[in-house]
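Quick one: structure tokens for this chain, please?
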Amino acid sequence: MQSVPLGSQGLTVSRQGLGCMGMSEFYGPRDDAESIATIHRALDLGVTFLDTADMYGPHTNEELVGRGIADRRDQVVLATKFANVRAADGTYLGVRGDAAYVREACEGSLRRLGVDHIDLYYQHRVDPKTPIEETVAAMAELVAEGKVRYLGLSEAAPATIRRAHAVHPISALQTEYSVWAREPEDEILPTLRELGIGFVPYSPLGRGFLTGTLRSLDQLADDDFRHLQPRLQGDNLEANIAIVERIDAIAAERDVSPAQVALAWVHAQGEDVVPIPGTKRRSFLEENVGALDVELTAEELAALEEAGQAAGDRYADMSGVNR
């Protein structure tokens, strides 16, 4: 597994990471034993960049990841996030980025993860009520104290990224990016490259849709959050299947899986782009890692780019992203 720099401050991560969110929530039933086995298999394969957040579960995903890495902490580049506040019963309470909450959230994450430091600490969503300067200054204090090594932002707009980076260097920006979600190419990616900030795409497989296995929401568990995704509704779903068919065709020609083609497209965008496909099963993890051996031709890349953007918004409520 290749290691690459993420940002220009010294953070090095595996070329592909593992998103752990679905192990605890949002994607149907959980299986903690298989999820921990998946984390262990990831580490064995060299996928050492693990991504979680305090809101997943809520709170239980960090505990799960903590158990998974308990005897392997030195192998892991551990990323977690704060700012989306949820009660123990899952009720969403809003976004907080005030200094007091930054410290409170970090202490909670350290405790649940069972570690003495977090390698990459993201603000999960920008708090419109708190200046980004206050939030990042509080995060910088955690770096000075050794509780956090590097700082990141998630779903931040270019102007916010610049303001944050002026307070303390930002190593990574996370947002959705894939064959069908290419909005970051307009302003976000150029800003990151100008400032020397790494890019971590989440949902590089379009929440599973780009794997070619999902054609109807009837295939999903009742509590699967994809029932609420605009891109998987009605006419949008029908339009977006055309993108998947383009991926399927290339996969068939290459004798690889559609997921591997979709991930190979993301990897082709540059070594400063480190996707974190999520899974809770070893079989899918191994398939995703296999994408690193797939190098798309210029013609294949062009065919995928011609497929165009997905129809529909990424979320039913887009007010909290790209602030």
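The CA atoms of residues 4 and 219 lie 37 Å apart.
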